[in-house]
Design brief:
mainly alpha, 16 helices
Length: 264
Amino acid sequence: MQKLIDFDALFDEKLTLYMQQNAGKYSEKKWESIIPKLYKQFGDITIPSIRNTPKGYYAAMTDEELADTLRRHVEEGVAVSDFLCRELESRNCPDPLVRLLDGDNEELLLLAVNLAGANEKAFGAYFNILKTSDDAELKDAVTEQLKARADAARQQALSLYEENVEPDLMLEILSRCKERDERVYTLLLDAFRTSGEIPIHASYLAAYGDVRALPVLLEVIDRDDINYVEYQELKFAIEALGGEYTRERDFSSDPYYREIHGED
């Protein structure tokens, strides 16, 4: 079993010494640009105790060792260095990383999601997280990855929508599909018409980009009972689809309008 090494702590020690040696030489803003460059250089510096560089230390590990090292860092409270993360990312979502997505440590899961990215190998685990997790941040991270490859995620998203599993998240994913699919368009349009949540579902129609939604959006925006927030999102969706709404509206008595514009 490989020894856990806190490379970030080692870097901080060297950085403290370097800053002491160069005290007064740089402004605080200049240090902010220098430190990332120093960290990058640190990755190629040989550490005598391991006879290797931080980058080389992780590059020598197998996929299984890398994933296990990530797990141990999190579970044992040792900082996860960027060098470990970059090496894992370079392995194109190896199977041991995907297996970490079946755990229950939310910090580790969030790290694993960010490292696995929008790789289809992870999609099964991602949808399982959406079905079972109560962690909003984790679910948001998973949703972002699935949205990035929405066409590849479409069939699973459609199936879970039919099972009423996180329907709004499934619609959010489906709204990013580039390939036209009548099932997707119908779901997005029906949700807009029936949900009562006009802004979010108007944004889904805008993201999907099917101009057939324009007449429905124009009909709703012309209603006198919509509020200012709904009006703004509808107008954006209409314009995103190449349409235009020109009727003058007065929202000066609308509480949302007054709040946004700083009126009592």
